[in-house]
Automatic annotation (TrEMBL):
Protein name: GH92 family glycosyl hydrolase
Originating species: Sphingomonas liriopis
EC number: 3.2.1.-
GO terms of molecular function: carbohydrate binding; hydrolase activity, acting on glycosyl bonds; peptide-N4-(N-acetyl-beta-glucosaminyl)asparagine amidase activity
Glycosyl hydrolase family 92 N-terminal domain: residues covered: 28-281
Length: 769
């Protein structure tokens, strides 16, 4: 009897502990990154959703002053200007903020946002963070000036607003098609509003901003009929004579075309909250109407469905860690699942980079490809924590985009199907290679390889013609030449890897040779990656600390880019003079005294630890490089330093732009204890874990578990590593080993093990080991 009582007591105790741990969805805090330099948004969206329905605190800033508002919302702003339907998560640049909606109460409807410093001067409203609630798929806030309680939720292609108006006051909506994130001069080319006989409001807008000629269509329905409306064009210029939109003609109760449209919608005095359901489409207004029908139900139904989707997506990774770390990691996973976002309509139609409407068969078209950032960890993470369909959709979307591209190449930085030509490299290539080598086969591999080779052979792009002819990009012909040379060489290596796996020896041999081109811009005498002139000489004067846009490097300097040889770190270390000198240079990077340097002119340079810049991507693999020099214990020290200083569960908890999930994916991988230094190698370099236990449900349903025995702030070193019960002597784990399922168990201690991982034979992959 006593044994039974003890067992019952233990069972109840375990149940109480389990119940006290929040579910993954409840551990997420969408406010993380909304302050500081994170540039994330707190609003409602579904996993990879087309709609990101979120508050904009300032959509009227001048172009050069908008950096801090790249996501529309900034935590320290005092007012909300309205709620718009499209946002980037953590981009360093911006656009979007489409279809701004602002509820108003009373007799007067204000048509301009007004001054944030002057309450009541416009339709914007003050708010208090104490009234905000943000969860995956849901956002709520009380608008102080009007007393309106606002709630937002979103499905894949729809967003739903719910507004509770003060009792006895007339309800209105103001729709401002003029409003947009980043105030590009003349951004709104044309727009339209059409009120259909059934009360559905449809419309469109064509913009020229970061992406030129972008078209977006919408359909909007209301839970109660309109009692009145007005469509107003605030523009006095000569109308744009290009794209005119579909028009509704005699089918429309009312319509208006123009450059600066607003709609005032009246609903009278309401006894219940007003629900507003909005669907988007990149195709046409009828496509938006069809997308409305494809996700039936009102606010509660959409919220329930999206909550279930987030519960399933986040639940694929089970995390046991102290509450602050658990919140940080689950929020990082959440941010990693926002893009690439859905772009095709429910019927498969989508607008391509040629501005024509196409139909996808058998997959969902994705867009929002921040590839210079996300090839590193974001896309490799998706191959582990998402169903296979997600990665296959991504690769199919890249191939499809190339088919419809006027230039015949893969996307560089694309959103809403439009190319921005932002950043460098052809980094769709490693995304495809990484997927193929990991066994994903839901796409045409031959078409993929053709697209990869075409992208790597497109001479007009970024000095690529000179790179092909000379083996490097000359700085007197192309800016950021040093960075472009090494990034092209890495991409070339991934082409060689995929071609080799496909039996295409001719292609493999050609690009394997090009993969060594990084040496052509590396100055072995000084130990730095440097830009070369057409004459072959290195450009002078040379300062490894200098950071200037359009100079030798992309968003960085020689300190960061001299380490970018993911495919051949061993070859790089030999040029540096061996392991000891490589370690000394790594230490010098982290320990550099930057107190006398001023990088304030460079927006993306944030999160400095010496010359290591965690707030920008070129540094992201560097802490793991000690393992390539036989000193993984130094990697373990640096990772503890980075995680402690660069991440925290607060609005300013990201040290730099999340960049569509890359900053967050870095934390997810690092918390698990390994990281993909060279996507395409099928290896993950072991670091050290930051969670006591994690279990990943892999795409095929198998489970891979990570356990950290003895983990504590004092125990930051690995004293033992076992894979499926057997000692692991090497400092990497294979992708195939993870996909087979099993357990990776770490033993943590306060004293480093300087022997483990020191032998050359146990180090991670290098092209010239």
């Amino acid at each position: 009897m006593r044994v039974l009582l003890l067992l019952l007591s233990a069972s109840l105790s375990a149940t109480a502990v389990a119940q006290s741990v929040p579910a993954p969805i409840d551990a997420v805090d969408p406010m993380i990154g909304t302050g500081g330099e994170g540039h994330t948004f707190p609003g409602a969206t579904a996993p990879f959703g087309m709609v990101q329905l979120s508050p904009d605190t300032d959509a009227t800033c001048a172009l050069r002053a908008c950096y801090g508002h790249a996501a529309g919302y900034r935590y320290d702003d005092p007012t909300i200007q309205g709620f718009s339907h499209t946002h980037f998560s953590g981009a360093g640049h911006s656009d979007l903020g489409d279809l701004l909606v602002m509820p108003q109460a009373g007799e007067t409807v204000r048509m301009d946002p007004g001054d944030a410093k002057v309450p009541g001067s416009g339709y914007r409203s003050r708010f208090d963070h104490a009234t905000e609630r943000a969860k995956p798929g849901y956002y709520a806030v009380k608008l102080t000036d009007s007393g309106i309680a606002a709630e937002l939720t979103a499905g894949t292609r729809v967003g739903v607003h719910r507004y509770a108006f003060p009792k006895g006051r007339a309800a209105h909506l103001l729709i401002d098609l003029r409003s947009s994130l980043y105030d590009y001069p003349g951004k709104i080319l044309w727009s339209g509003l059409h009120l259909r006989p059934d009360g559905t409001l449809t419309g469109f807008r064509e913009t020229r901003g970061w992406a030129p000629g972008r078209k977006l269509f919408f359909a909007m329905r209301f839970s109660t009929p309109l009692t009145g409306h007005a469509f107003v064009d605030r523009d006095t210029d000569v109308p744009y004579k290009g794209f005119q939109g579909p028009g509704r003609g005699s089918d429309a109760v009312a319509e208006k075309l123009g450059k600066a449209l607003e709609a005032r919608l009246d609903f009278g005095t309401l006894a219940a909250p007003l629900e507003v359901k909005v669907a988007l489409s990149g195709v046409d207004e009828d496509g938006a109407v069809a997308n409305l029908a494809a996700e039936p139900g009102g606010f509660d139904a959409i919220r329930t469905a999206t909550t279930a989707a987030w519960t399933a997506a986040l639940g694929r990774v089970e995390i046991d860690a102290p509450a602050p770390m658990r919140t940080s990691v689950y929020t990082a996973l959440y941010h990693s699942l926002l893009a690439p976002s859905v772009w095709s309509d429910a019927d498969g139609r989508y607008r391509g980079p040629d501005d024509q409407v196409h139909a996808a068969k058998g997959f969902t078209v994705r867009s929002t490809f921040s590839l210079w950032d996300t090839f590193r960890a974001e896309h490799p993470l998706l191959t582990l924590v998402q169903p296979a369909a997600t990665t296959n959709d991504v690769v199919n979307s890249l191939i499809e985009s190339r088919r419809n591209s006027p230039d015949g190449i893969l996307p560089v930085w694309q959103f809403a199907g439009r190319e921005t030509w932002t950043m460098i490299g052809y980094h769709a290539v490693p995304v495809i290679t990484d997927a193929y080598l990991k066994g994903f086969r839901g796409f045409d591999a031959d078409a993929a390889l053709d697209a990869m080779v075409a992208s790597a052979s497109y001479a007009p792009y970024g000095g690529l013609g000179d790179y092909i002819a000379r083996g490097y990009v000359p700085i007197d012909k192309e800016p950021e030449a040093a960075s472009k040379t090494v990034e092209y060489a890495y991409d070339d290596w991934t082409i060689a890897r995929m071609a080799g796996a496909m039996g295409r020896k001719d292609v493999a041999d050609r690009f394997a040779k090009r993969a060594g081109n990084w040496r052509n811009s590396f100055d072995a005498k000084s130990g730095w990656l440097r830009a070369r002139l057409s004459s072959g000489a290195f450009r002078t004067p040379f300062d490894p600390t200098a950071i200037n846009y359009g100079s030798d490097y992309t968003e960085g300097n020689a300190w960061q880019y001299s380490w970018f040889v993911p495919q051949d770190q061993a070859g790089l270390f030999r040029l540096l003079g061996g392991d000891a000198k490589a370690i000394a240079k790594l230490d010098a990077m982290f320990d550099y005294d930057t107190s006398k340097l001023d990088y304030s002119h460079a927006e993306d340079i944030a999160g400095l630890i010496g010359q290591y810049i965690h707030g920008n991507e070129p540094s992201h693999h560097v802490a793991y490089l000690y393992s390539y020099a036989g000193a993984p214990w130094r990697t373990q020290e640096r990772l503890a330093q980075i995680v402690a200083s660069q991440y925290k569960p607060t609005p300013d908890g990201l040290s730099g732009n999340d960049d569509l999930g890359q900053m967050s994916a870095w934390l997810v991988f690092t918390a698990l204890g390994f990281y993909p230094v060279a996507p395409g190698s099928n290896e993950y370099v072991i670091g050290r874990p930051f969670v006591a236990r994690a279990a990943i449900t892999l795409p095929d349903g198998k489970r891979f578990t990570v356990v950290a025995d003895g983990l504590s702030p004092a125990n930051r070193y690995l004293t033992g590593v076992r894979l499926n019960g057997k000692p692991l002597t090497r400092t990497y784990v294979g992708d195939d080993e993870i996909r087979s399922g099993g357990e990776l168990r770490f033993t943590m201690g306060a004293v480093p093990d300087k022997i483990w991982g020191s032998e050359r034979a146990v180090r991670p992959f290098s092209m010239t080991r």
